[in-house]
Design a protein that fits this description.
Number of strands of chain A: 14
Structural class of chain A: alpha/beta
CATH architecture of chain A: 4-Layer Sandwich
Distance between the termini of chain A: 18 Å
CATH class of chain A: Alpha Beta
Order of helices and strands of chain A: EHEEHEHHEEEEEEHEHEHEEH
Helix content of chain A: 10-25%
Largest sheet of chain A: 7 strands, mixed
Number of domains of chain A: 1
Number of helices of chain A: 8
Largest interface: A-B, 32 and 32 residues
Strand content of chain A: 15-25%
Strand order of the largest sheet of chain A: 6-5-4-3-2-1-14
Oligomer: homodimer
């Protein structure tokens, strides 16, 4: 499995419009520090899967290479916005899997175009796709939201965004399942004490410790967490990294961590 | 008044995802033939106004220069999609004017962020903005939709997209008002005989003739109209042009046409 972080930002992205904090200022000067809408890409056995669809170049990207399927964590605009344009294309239908959510986003269900919206995924029931088994797990968010436990026979990666903490049944499942890599929502900095729909950094680190994963990457990162991490007392340690747009994890790296 | 066509495509844009027609093929090779989401920009007396907000680089564009206001024709995703990202910014609120539409698009009203959604505009009641008078006129579309009649004391421009024909009261208003320039929806080619929500080319040309404008530009153009226009028997004539992304009309040009 090859896993690529395509976008690692929260809904405001980095830089946030109108913000003059150090992280936003840095991102305006150094494009490598920009963070786009949170989404990722998985390649396995020649198949390409997209996790979320908020990137605005989605149609262009799918022209380069049509995905085998799109897996949607939830129907907030920053996670599905690219579908608004892609749907009006032509050709082979593209399967879209996601949570059961009667509303979806705006008129996506009413005018699906080339998107083949499949029935809502059932939590903990594995979805068998070519080369990839996906087990959806419920997350805590303001709209029905799923995390995806991805397995290709070589490595196990849990993609867990957007969430505030984890539901008990999800945490129990993950501890049994034993991911090699955990990718987790860490939208807010430590100073954001009472987040409502996303983890702050201490919450994310506690979850990672409880899950006992050998490595973890934080994503869905807001500009103020980036600003906090620019200071000297950046509280990350151990096998935990901040993801960045374009970062790739390959099967070898996952296996190495699993065996090591 | 300086008027710029920022995007001139229909909801599928050009090239349309997956399409191998001559127009889509050309747009893939020559970026000057691409058409983005339909929107425009007006500059007058140092103020910048945006007509619709479907462009995906909206937040970046507003960082370069904050608009005085955003005028939304209607709340279909291809006309407001850029607001999903922009709203989560910070700083001075940006006024957004548009039709009365209880639903808006997705959760924009519920989470407006830096967007100051003003009460729905009343048809035919002029809105006085710095340097610009905007008279909203009803259009025929599948969602409440307004055209905008723009006047800066020098030139008069009617921006009429998205629409199928024109409501009688709108057509009567426009004939009395006497625009120098008409910008009109021409999504479909002549061969699309029974369009439902947008004009085909013959309908657009008939409207322009009835309005008696000295010049007209077609916008919200679909790939199949572009393909039709690539053939030798392209039926445009007289003072009617296909708009293209980036095309600018300046006050002088409008005045020249008005006097000539």
């Amino acid at each position: 499995m090859n896993f690529r972080f395509v976008g690692t930002g929260d809904s405001a992205q980095v830089p946030r419009f109108g913000c003059d904090c150090p992280a936003c200022g840095r991102a305006r000067v150094l494009s490598s520090h920009r963070r786009g809408a949170c989404c990722a890409e998985v390649r396995v056995d020649g198949y390409r899967y997209l996790l979320d669809a908020g990137r605005t170049d989605l149609a262009d990207s799918c022209e380069q290479e049509t995905p085998e399927a799109i897996l949607v964590t939830h129907y907030h605009a920053d996670h599905v916005q690219g579908l608004f344009h892609l749907r009006w294309g032509t050709g082979t239908m593209i399967p879209v899997y996601g949570p059961k959510d009667a509303n979806g986003c705006a008129d996506l269900y009413r005018h699906p175009g080339v998107l083949d919206f499949r029935p809502g995924l059932k939590p903990f029931r594995p979805l068998m796709l070519p080369g990839l088994t996906v087990t959806p797990v419920p997350l805590n968010h303001s709209k029905p939201t799923l995390g995806f436990c991805l397995e290709d026979g070589g490595g196990r990666l849990a993609y867990l965004t957007d969430t505030l903490g984890l539901p008990g049944e999800t945490e129990r499942f993950l501890r049994d399942w034993g991911p090699d890599v955990v990718v987790l929502d860490a939208t807010h900095p430590s100073t954001h004490h009472e987040p409502r729909n996303h983890n702050n950094l201490p919450m994310a680190l506690q979850i990672i410790e409880r899950l006992g994963a050998s490595s973890a990457y934080l994503t869905h990162i807001g500009h103020d967490l980036d600003a906090e991490c620019m200071t000297a007392d950046m509280p990350l340690s151990g096998p935990v990294w901040l993801a960045h747009d374009g970062l790739e994890l390959d099967a070898g790296a996952m296996m190495a961590r699993r065996c090591g």
